[in-house]
Amino acid sequence: MFQGYYDLASNMITQNRNLNVISNNMANVSTPGYKADKLIESTFREEMIYRYDQQGKTQVGTVSRMNIADERVTNYAEGGLRETGGALDVGLTGDGFFAVQTNNGVVYTRNGSFNLDDERYLVLPGIGRVLGTDGAPIQLPTDAVGIDKQGNITSEDGYQRYGTLRVVDFADYDQLTKITGGVFRAAGQPQAAADAQVNQKYTEYSNTSMAEEMTRMMSGQRVLQGSAQILKIYDQLIGKIVTLGGQ
Length: 247
What we know:
Elements: H1 2-27, E1 37-53, E2 56-74, E3 81-83, E4 90-93, E5 97-102, E6 105-109, E7 115-116, E8 122-124, E9 128-130, E10 145-147, E11 152-155, E12 161-164, E13 167-169, E14 176-180, E15 183-186, E16 191-192, E17 197-200, E18 202-204, H2 210-245
Antiparallel strand pairs: 1-2, 3-18, 4-17, 5-6, 5-9, 5-13, 6-15, 7-8, 8-9, 10-11, 11-12, 13-16, 14-15
């Protein structure tokens, strides 16, 4: 019976973590380039069940113990493009990420909702300055620019070239760690993106499905409530055992 406490308590902790992941996905449903997360669950261990009868000890099978959070997996599928009309907005198609310089190093994102800061550097607001292929932040004299499929930034008439957006990719996405919204930090070195295309005046939709997240949230809440109710019954039973044992 006491094992049930551990099983139910661990399941409640896991479901709380699952609901936090789902809530974060829903909060970022409008964040350009956001990639949805999913919590993968597993069991802490399996135990063999035995039956004791006149024939002796017989193996019945295994039972799983303690549902736990195994890992948080990110879905990197494209979210599709949304037209914005903003000259500094860019959306990626194909595999790849923009590189952004922050105070704590370079981070990577598919959020191309860019702007200019007070020094006229191209920035991702709240994150940092967007890097060019030369490894330096891109500075523009104006926000009236043209951006081609390769990320080359020019004047509207195309006669002046201001820089090229650095678009990179990774051989293994497992080395990426999400730090906020659709922004990632990488453990390894990136490589030039092979098939990415830059689309000016567009941003990429979040790939979060609100209907799917709502379904997952309702399922998680039911599991959490069920575990809490059974845990309450366990507590009542233990209370009765303690009362009877004291008589």
